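Worked example 2:
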Amino acid sequence: MRTLKLLIAFFLLQACAGGSYSLLPPGEHRIGQLLVRSDAAWNRLPAKYQPLEADAVLTRHGTNLDSIIIFSDLRAGDALFRAPSSYRGMPRFESTMLPQDIMELTESSFRIRLGEGDARVAVDDLRILPGDRFEFAMNHTASNGFRIRGIVHGGLYSGRAWLIVYQAAADHYFDLSKQDALALFASARINKAGI
C-alpha cells in the first residue's frame, strides 16, 4: 500500500512539474522535418522552453554552457525566436534567401534575442557545402564578458531552410562536444516522407 501511495505521489509531482528534460539517446532520430544521427546522448528541453520555431533544443551541461538548437522547417515569414518585446520585431525568413542572407538573419536574430547593452554577436567564415548546404561560425559575448562560440549548419530545400546551431562556452565546453555536433550536422537530412 505504501509503495502504491509513493507511486501515485511521484506521478502527481511529474504532472505538476509541467515537463522535464528527456533523454535523446545515441542513434537516429526524427526531429521535425529532419532525420539526424547522434553518436552521443543529449538532454532535450521540454517544448514550452524552446524558441519559437525550434523543433528541439538539446544540451549536455545546461543551456548556458552548451546547446544544439534545431530548426527543421523554416518557411517564409518565420522568425527564429519570439520578439523580446512588442516594439521590437524579429527578422523573418524569406523563401528567396541565400546562405549569406540566412547568415545575416541568424546574426540579427541572436543580437536581438540577447538584447543586452554591450552584448556582441559576430558571424563569419561562410562555407558553401555540397547538397545545398552551408556552414558559418557564430560567436557572441555577453555584457559581462562571458564568451560563446558556435557553428551554424544548414540547408535549403523547396523555398524553405533548416538550421542546426551548436553553441557552447568558449573556454571549455565548445571543444568538449564539438566533434559530436559536427557528426550530427553531417548526418542531417530531410525526411522526404514528412514533406
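Confidence is low (pLDDT under 50) at residues 1-18. The longest strand covers residues 147-157.
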